[in-house]
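Appendix C: a fully annotated inverse folding record. The material below is reproduced so that readers can follow the format used throughout the book. The structure is listed first as tokens, followed by the designed sequence.
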């Protein structure tokens, strides 16, 4: 009897140890300890209780960066080779500086996948599709004719490259997060790391939980948390999701770093964005929910949206914010269907009914983040619709470093101008 009890605990312990690994895939692997540029850090340590930073260095200024975030539960469906990631990017013609893609159920949540090692095949497939889409977008933005001289535009494109590289990609069972940045400021990103927390079977397996990634851009720390919380539409199931969130916040731990006292917990970072299939539902009878969805009465539905109520209640989500929702619920659709929610009246008898809900969300924590866009996509690959957001964020930059950047860019521009003059003679 004792052995029967210990066996699942031993299995869970082994899997949990694997989930906690800080290893991740990246185009430019880093152990987080090496600085590509020597950047001064003349500021006091963070006050972990308040989350504020007190500076003693007056020689700093802020610089704005744009961040694109996407979350999508793909329902265990593997994308085809010709799947168009532009569907996730939507009509965002302006190229952002940072792209964060979060996926849930990239593999079916069967026992073999939950207990087995990830092969990396699926995550490699998604990353390949993302690479094609981002680099295509970058080339369109940099090589579009601006002054009628294709040679000059080509050289200017070399001076200000828009190609993107993956700095972190990590999969835990069905949860995958992939972070991409523009190559021209990759050298200002340091200390990339990951932390995985499983909240699923036996309270620790990775069929539910979160993969969190963090890095420091210049002198500001950013953290992205890709989550898949407990499912269920019964009364009280939202409390299980709240418990999942509390576990993720308490158990997620990052390494300190070598030359800087970096934040170790999620909420101690300067900017935090949480994305994923949070699975919060609408606390209304199913028939009422469907009637309001048919009418497009989002305000009436949002009054009973569980996540909105949790955000206002301010307990597990104290200090968190979300943009205004002006789009239809993202769950649950018939796969490959454009406008039919699962469980409509004409379905077969005995088929499960799932009330429509905004399961897929993006919320944020911390000062210095400003939402520019919050919308859903219309890809029909799975029973969820993807959700995207664009943020602008202020990042602290040393003035000394900024002058150094300007010097190198000026030198490079002079070199290109000289070469162009030589070719024109």
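Designed amino acids, in order:
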């Amino acid at each position: 009897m004792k052995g029967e009890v210990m066996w699942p605990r031993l299995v869970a312990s082994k899997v949990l140890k694997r989930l906690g690994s800080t290893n991740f895939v990246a185009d430019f692997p880093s152990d987080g300890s090496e600085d590509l540029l020597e950047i001064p850090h003349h500021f006091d340590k963070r006050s972990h209780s308040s989350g504020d930073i007190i500076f003693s260095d007056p020689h700093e200024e802020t610089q704005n960066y744009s961040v694109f975030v996407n979350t999508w539960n793909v329902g265990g469906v593997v994308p085809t080779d010709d799947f168009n990631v532009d569907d996730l990017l939507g009509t965002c013609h302006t190229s952002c500086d940072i792209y964060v893609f979060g996926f849930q159920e990239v593999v079916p949540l069967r026992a073999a996948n939950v207990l087995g090692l990830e092969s990396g095949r699926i995550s490699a497939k998604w990353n390949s599709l993302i690479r094609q889409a981002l680099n295509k977008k970058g080339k369109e933005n940099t090589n579009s004719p601006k002054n009628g001289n294709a040679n000059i535009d080509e050289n200017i494109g070399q001076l200000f490259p828009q190609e993107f590289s993956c700095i972190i990609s990590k999969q835990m069972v069905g949860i995958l997060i992939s972070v991409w940045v523009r190559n021209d400021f990759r050298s200002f990103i340091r200390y990339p790391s990951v932390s995985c927390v499983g909240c699923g079977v036996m309270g620790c397996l990775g069929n539910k939980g979160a993969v969190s990634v963090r890095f420091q851009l210049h002198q500001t720390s950013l953290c992205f948390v890709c989550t898949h919380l407990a499912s269920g539409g019964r009364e009280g199931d939202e409390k299980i999701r709240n418990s999942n969130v509390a576990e993720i916040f308490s158990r997620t731990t990052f390494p300190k770093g070598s030359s800087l006292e970096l934040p170790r917990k999620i909420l101690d970072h300067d900017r935090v964005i949480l994305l994923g299939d949070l699975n919060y539902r609408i606390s209304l009878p199913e028939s009422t929910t469907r009637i309001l969805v048919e009418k497009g009465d989002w305000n009436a539905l949002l009054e009973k949206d569980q996540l909105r109520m949790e955000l206002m209640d301010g307990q597990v989500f104290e200090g968190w914010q979300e943009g205004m929702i002006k789009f239809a619920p993202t769950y649950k659709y018939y796969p490959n269907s454009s406008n039919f929610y699962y469980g409509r009246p004409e379905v077969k008898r005995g088929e499960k009914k799932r009330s429509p809900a905004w399961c897929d969300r993006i919320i944020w924590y911390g000062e210095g983040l400003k939402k520019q866009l919050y919308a859903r996509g219309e890809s029909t690959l799975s029973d969820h619709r993807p959700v995207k957001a664009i943020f602008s964020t202020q990042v602290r930059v040393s003035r000394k470093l900024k002058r150094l950047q300007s010097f190198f860019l000026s030198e490079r521009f002079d070199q290109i101008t000289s070469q162009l003059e030589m070719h024109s003679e």
